[in-house]
Amino acid sequence: MSLEDQKKSARKAAFARRKQAYETAPRGRSGKLSEVLAGYRGVPLAGYMPIRTEIDPLPAMCEAAAHGPVSVPVIEAQGRPLKFAEWQPGCEMTDGPFGAQIPVTLNLFEPEILIVPLVAFSKDGGRLGYGGGFYDRTLELLRAKRPTLAIGFAFGAQEAADLPLEPTDQPLDLIVTENQIFEI
After folding, report:
1. Domain count, the chain
2. CATH number of the domain that 148 lies in?
3. What is the pTM for the complete model shown?
4. Taking 80 as the threshold, does the pLDDT of residue 69 lie above it?
């Protein structure tokens, strides 16, 4: 089985686990994420606008926005790193590529901490995304300039023991679930 086939299979299984967790998880899923971010008040942060069955980081992002700049990713083009537009709770939003909301006004800045959505993770910092490579390219670029903290945010059910990864896959520094914090 090719690496791409392995990734497709792993994504399919992880999407099913994520959907189940999304449908059954109680409210207040971002408490552990807020706990982690409290230690980085004022540091430029990138969150994400949740789509489909992704775990919702918005409550933690709202708390962080009271202490420093928060942004959300903007996809410019396939094969390019992400840009990040300043976000505030209640700011005017519009549809971006892949169904994620982006601010109408694009005030761009580079974050030092990224809350990274994912399809599956391993406790050693491995991350399986949607397959576009956006976060891998972005983390590689940002880490070449300065220390950049990548926090994977997911349901605990998205954990996988063995992920099909490539050398270009950027590792996570922390993984936060609705119930746990895994330091890598």
Report:
1. 1
2. 3.40.50.10420
3. 0.95
4. yes
